[in-house]
Request: fold
Amino acid sequence: MMNKNTVLAWATFIMIFMGCLLIALGAFRYEDVAGWGFACVGFGFFAIAWVFNALKGRV
Reply:
């Protein structure tokens, strides 16, 4: 059974994976202004993953 910390750990992992994917899309797939948008959203995913990681053990 998954407790709160396990759920936050999985959410952090998924957010980091999606952040890397979005940054890669912005860097390698889109070469115009859309690439900057994808990369910015990817870094936003990293920030949210950092918050999820900080919440482990506190919720």
About this structure: The mean pLDDT is 92.
